[in-house]
Amino acid sequence: MPQDAVFGRNPSLAEISAVHSNVVAYWRFAGNANDEDPTASHLTVTSGETFSDAWVAPGVAGGWIGGNAERRAYDRASIDASLQINGDFTISCLFTLARDRDPGTADGIVLLSVSNDTESSTTSFTGAGSGLRYLFGIVDEGYLAASLSNAAGGAETFLFSNEARVVQGVPNHLVLRRSGTTLEVYINGVLVGSATATVSVGNGTGTTIVVGRSMGTVRNFSGAIASLGLWNAALGATEIAKLNKLHLTQGSRGDLAGGTDIDFQGNDTERFDTLTANRTLTFSNPVQGEVIFLQLVQDATGGRTLTLPSSAKVIAGTFSTTANAVNHVGIYCVDASAPKYLVTYRQE
Q1: For residues 289-306, b (16+ Cβ closer than 10 Å) or e, as one string?
Q2: CB of 174 within 8 A of CB of 193?
Q3: How far apart are CA 194 and CA 204, in angstroms?
Q4: What is the DSSP letter of 221?
Q5: Closest among 150, 149, 100 to 127, alpha carbons compared
Q6: What mean pLDDT value characterizes the chain?
Q7: Model's pTM, two decimal places?
Q8: What pLDDT shows up at residue 164?
């Protein structure tokens, strides 16, 4: 089976610096909205003032393990010189877009925007202003967009509307890379779009950083942004692959085949089964931070129940016993020493 992204994490500054040392900003959103790089470009929270370590998983309505979908936005009144990139750069963002949330075509949702323009009602996705430095975001139906401009008035907008599309409700690790005149977009480590960018990204005295909201209207990102990094260099394909592995746990999918034991050190991180009888699960070989996803389908009769071990606590959803119901079960090992597990349920 091909490997797919099944679980997201926000790596430490040391981990991403080991991939490439030219990190000029890294917002990990682990307890606050601070920049963990020494430049200390801390953000101000403009909505949703609660934080936790951002483990992104699809089992929790596109939010974090242990919580519901969040609507958050951040900004900063002034930009440090290190963020005023002039030349090659790389932006990395790990996030989950909540299910059934479709950003509008015109104003979209900004993952990161750096500008010396005062924000106005004019959308940045239909034409970059002269004060905009760079912008990376999501537009209609989950497609990606980028804008570049400089103080000399040069401006370009790129809509990667044919191939670069994120998926709602699951972790997406995005990379926007500029090297010379080449602009590339990666989703989960795979190059999915490219364009020729002729405009240089000019420096200037910036006044605005926007993260997690629209530009044209007051509308915040619905989902969870787990980490956001910026390099003043173009990372290579090998480095992007390493960065992706730091952000996403990947695994294969196998048939549970009527079994009852979930081995956290097994090869399969996703398993599926059709229930023809009641099921009692056991968990073995716990690995702290590991997540297992199950797809358990009721047969045409339905009524099949699922019993969990006492070490597991259901924190979201209910298990459907309706005939032919498809149950998605997320099992998160929160403590391996004295095993404890968090479980979420979601139905198709």
Answers
A1: bbbbbbbbebeeeeebeb
A2: no
A3: 27
A4: E
A5: 149
A6: 78
A7: 0.69
A8: 76
